[in-house]
Design brief:
single chain, 97 residues, 5 helices, mainly alpha
């Protein structure tokens, strides 16, 4: 059990797979609903709300800040491989948030 000592802080948040899936699904849904709002800040907030996470959890947690940004950007680019202007918009907006 000694090696599990760090897991207590993780118990309150959904597992990595659940958050990753929620981020990807949110990008896909938002892309259909309103591609102009497919920003890192907006997607993070949407997933935090859906998963009942604390506000800004995905931005303030050191692991999830980088991981959520990467997942959101990868998913957005995969949805618009011929629309690089959208991925530049997404990346620009991530710097603002």
């Amino acid at each position: 059990m000694d090696s599990d000592g760090d897991l207590s802080s993780i118990d309150s948040a959904p597992d990595t797979r659940a958050i990753t899936t929620a981020l990807r699904n949110a990008v896909q849904k938002q892309f259909v609903e309103d591609p102009s709002r497919t920003t890192i800040k907006y997607i993070r907030a949407r997933v935090e709300n859906e998963l009942n996470l604390d506000d800004n959890f995905l931005k303030l947690d050191s692991f999830w800040k980088a991981e959520s940004k990467s997942i959101i950007e990868d998913e957005a680019v995969s949805l618009s491989p011929h629309h690089h202007e959208h991925s530049r918009f997404l990346i620009y907006n991530s710097r603002v948030s």
